[in-house]
Design a protein that fits this description.
Layout: E1 2-10, E2 14-25, E3 30-37, E4 42-43, E5 50-51, E6 57-58, E7 60-66, E8 69-73, E9 75-79, E10 82-88, E11 95-103, E12 107-116
Antiparallel strand pairs: 1-12, 2-11, 3-10, 3-12, 4-5, 5-6, 7-8, 7-11, 9-10
Length: 119
Amino acid sequence: MVHLASSVAIPAEQWVEITAPEPLRTASYHHDVCFGVAIPYRLADQPMGIVDRSGDPVAFKVEVVGDGVWVALPLLSYSDDDVCFGTTDEHAAQAFTHVRFYASASMTIDHVLWRSTDK
């Protein structure tokens, strides 16, 4: 596991990029970026995703970037109060240096982690 940030403020409809403190490797079967969603946003029951106070969906995207390659990570799972964007058995043996976030509404995410079964 690699701690990426305590919190990240994402302005509406803008990409925010953070630099990883160490290479994010994908040699394992499972790897993802997980984070908590701050109030007034929450995780939706059905379908899976992030919603605002009224229950309206928020478009959210996560990408990993490194050495001229970028990979969009799909919404993968919920883990306790965190949402995870990631893949399984794809893009093996790569290392990424940055993570990019996009949200259709201004929000702050917290406890941002890179989880990988090879860490």
